[in-house]
Specification:
2 copies of one chain form a homodimer.
Chain A lengths: L9 H10 L26 E3 L4 H14 L3 E4 L18 E4 L6 E5 L4 E5 L4 H10 L2 E2 L12 H6 L7 H4 L6 E7 L5 E4 L12 H5 L8 E8 L1 E2 L3 E9 L2 H15 L3 E8 H10 L13 E9 L5 H14 L3 E6 L3 H21 L3 E6 L5 H15 L3 E7 L4 E7 L13 H14 L15 H7 L2 H14 L14
Parallel strand pairs in A: 1-3, 2-3
Antiparallel strand pairs in A: 4-5, 5-9, 6-10, 7-8, 7-9, 11-13, 11-14, 12-13, 12-16, 15-17, 16-17
Helix pairs in contact in A: 1-2, 7-9, 8-10, 11-12
Chain lengths: 473, 473
């Protein structure tokens, strides 16, 4: 559905200035034109930051009337270029940065109602303030915004027990492509009144409407957490440890992160100040967390499980965090790896998922395929419990990723082809954005793409919402 | 979007007989024309029962070519008339009864792949056979089919901990309205490749496509369950007991069912063979279940919580099931209430949800509104933890519901108007079907209805899928 859009030119800006307060108009800055991995350079646009849903609706109405494209902009932390438009008519860059109000928080109903621009860490802190947990947790939580988290259906480390952004959202307020406002801010756990529009908007990456607010699920805070860092014999062994934990601790297992030694090496190389566990790290490590109840016997059981894992040779070493400081230190190691990766500079980063049972085969065959392509470094880590691994390829030490840009496609396809042979996905949690449009065509299904195009056409006939993102032309 | 459809007449049947095996053609029977509450009398149709997805696709293709409507038919247990079409051109009634194969079950990946016609109880049994739990559980599980459970996003008693049908489904195989097959049978916990079509099809009640198979989430079986039947002082007290349990047992609370004494009276009246707890039942009772780990200290804690509830006057009596037989007996009471209701015959049954904090107000004000309308009996019971209550209105003892059919609308609107004032829903888990189309117009939002119509038009332009259901004309 190729659409021709008009530029957000001086005349259009004049129209908007008559209808919106000065404060909505922001100076253009590199912040709105760059993305973390530097693969995309967004063009300049008319940057607008509404302070309210009404102002946002006014902007969308005017864009719809004038046929001007809108690029929604949240924390700017997305990794697939969904927030930057490189080509096409000069767009409106609609930043949610001023919509940062927590409208309500109710520990009886266990809901928190936040505007799209609220930073994830602030939502977690607000929930904590009333003795509740908002479990969405990712490396970028200090800067990403909940609107973006929902638009991309963000995942992170708490998915195993609490689900991804989609599972944590009860309702949405959305400015639709015609500028009308859909108030779907329900607070209900169950509501079967017609089509599930909430989940259609979640993960649509701003291409079907602009999320301006969301009602979110809160949970009672676990009063006791057990966190262990293990050296495991292999990915198979890691899966066995997870199975042991899940069979004997039921739904209490809240996180299970696989980490390759390469991640430790990158941390040493780029951030020596980060304290690492284990004098001699093994090749594979596992970070496991249990949300338990105090005096619940989970401690005893967890220690028994770890002991059993050592006896069976699944693990060589296991450290249990003795206090919150140590627990935080373990998590800092895990959550700093993405920044270390960024500093090293990946040639290509695969955000993949496969059924858990295929993970060992993926890791084994993947290494062979990459080795056949050259002398590269692989950093494979991620959410073992969800079958979601980040499989990133780096140049040899001392070389720069740009020297290998001609190899990106062969590296990418080698791994994705394998992933699809194993029944997996080439975007587990980062989305499609603009980076993976070709991959969606290559690996997606004709029937699915046809449905996506029909839905985009039906809900955004002028194609003004995040043009060029998610839906292949 | 009023569409004109053609009848499944003799000529059309002849075309189909050339393309499908004899075994697909089923004799018409009342089974396909009735629904449990007897509010709808479906017209006769051409009943077809494909044995495979390919046969189902052939049927849909021919219906699309001929412009013949299709009414998907599962277990026939739906309560909103989604499975019976009263008027319009003679449809194809497409029964999934022969697609009852469990294609795969994998306790490593914790998935079960079932065809749409598999009865829910058979799925639960198959999971149990490999030491796993499929937690979807409802009164009709012995006859409802998983395809229907997904088409209607069924809820039930396990939602509090495990979510509804939507939350338990990883992927779908769907015959689309043009007869093409979308194989979305993923087994992945995380997959962000484009729009969430799975959740759009789930809950669409067959109006956007025909679900032919699904991959379902399995869970490790809790090795220890604690079940208690309480007499509680009031709905407020019931909410306080739930909060106590959730704050001190975290995510272990797996069910919390509120039951009014009226339900016990109906059971005594219609099924005296059912053994009821409590010599003198109070006005309100609560059935609470904890999925715990053995030796996990949960027993001690649960008993302490119940003790505390009694001391605080929240509960007058509390029985803890001492064994599986007793546990089953408690659940039989809860799960037989709907059959007792059916035998008494409701004038109107409200399937409603509100934010938990509004439940006491709903029950209090609701009783006043109904009393003002006449001398009726109210049976209010359901899933307290989800804010989902079944609020059913019955004639005085000895009278028949049909004498009051002229009162149905005033009764219905009195409660629904209240529910919407409290931020609730008029269909928490039963869906819209044909029964609640008017209510969706009255209580739904214009923006939402517009989106639904556009999506229906985009994906089913000929309007052949379950004509007249879910989407108001």
């Amino acid at each position: 559905m190729p659409v021709s859009l008009n530029p957000a030119d001086a005349a259009f800006e004049t129209v908007l200035r008559q209808r919106l307060p000065k404060t909505c108009f922001r100076p253009q800055s590199p912040h709105y034109q760059t993305e973390p991995r530097g693969f995309f350079q967004g063009q300049a646009g008319l940057v607008l930051a509404p302070a309210s849903t009404a102002e946002a609706a006014e902007i969308v109405q005017q864009c719809a009337a004038a046929g001007v494209g809108i690029v929604p902009f949240g924390g700017g932390t997305g990794l697939v270029g969904g927030q930057v438009m490189e080509t096409g008519a000069r767009p409106v860059i609609l930043s949610l940065e001023r919509m940062k109000r927590i409208r309500d928080i109710n520990p009886v109903d266990n809901i928190l109602l936040a505007e799209a621009g609220v930073v994830l860490a602030d939502i977690r802190a607000a929930a904590d303030g009333v003795g509740r947990l908002f479990p969405l947790s990712l490396a970028s939580e200090g800067s990403c915004q909940i609107g973006g988290n929902l638009a991309t259906n963000a995942g992170g480390v708490g998915v195993l027990r609490y689900g991804n952004a989609r599972d944590l959202c009860l309702g949405l307020e959305v400015v639709l492509p015609d500028g009308s406002i859909w108030n779907g801010l329900g607070r209900l756990r169950k509501d079967n009144t017609g089509y599930d529009l909430k989940n259609l908007l979640i993960g649509a990456e701003g291409s079907l409407g602009l999320i301006t607010a969301a009602s979110l699920k809160l949970f009672h805070r676990p009063d006791h957490q057990l966190t262990a860092f293990l050296q495991v014999a292999s990915p198979e062994a890691a899966l066995s440890v997870l199975a042991l934990c899940q069979s004997r601790l039921g739904g209490m297992v809240s996180a299970c992160e696989l980490i390759h030694r390469q991640g430790f090496d990158f941390l040493r190389e780029t951030m020596p100040q980060i304290r690492l566990p284990f004098a001699k790290p093994g090749e594979w490590m596992l970070l496991v967390e249990i949300d338990a109840i105090a005096d619940g016997g989970a401690d005893t059981r967890f220690e028994a499980i770890l002991g059993q894992a050592m006896e069976q040779g699944l693990a060589q070493d296991a450290l249990i965090a003795q206090n919150q400081v140590q627990r935080q230190a373990y998590w800092t190691v895990r959550e700093t790896i993405p920044e270390a990766n960024r500093r090293i500079g990946a040639i290509y980063s695969h955000d993949i998922s496969v059924p858990n049972s295929r993970i060992p085969e993926l890791i084994d065959k993947g290494a062979g395929l990459i080795a056949a392509l050259g002398d590269f470094r692989i950093n494979c880590f991620g959410h073992l419990g969800d079958g979601n691994l980040h499989y990133n390829i780096y140049p040899p030490r001392g070389r720069n990723r740009d020297e290998f840009s001609d190899r990106r496609d062969s590296i990418k396809h080698a791994i994705y082809d394998l992933v699809y042979r194993l029944g997996g996905s080439m975007s587990a949690e980062h989305g499609i954005g603009r980076l993976k449009l070709d991959d969606l065509v290559r690996y997606g299904q004709a029937e699915k793409l046809a449905m996506m195009r029909r839905i985009k056409q039906a809900l955004d006939p002028k194609g003004i919402m995040n043009p060029g993102a998610v839906v292949p032309p």
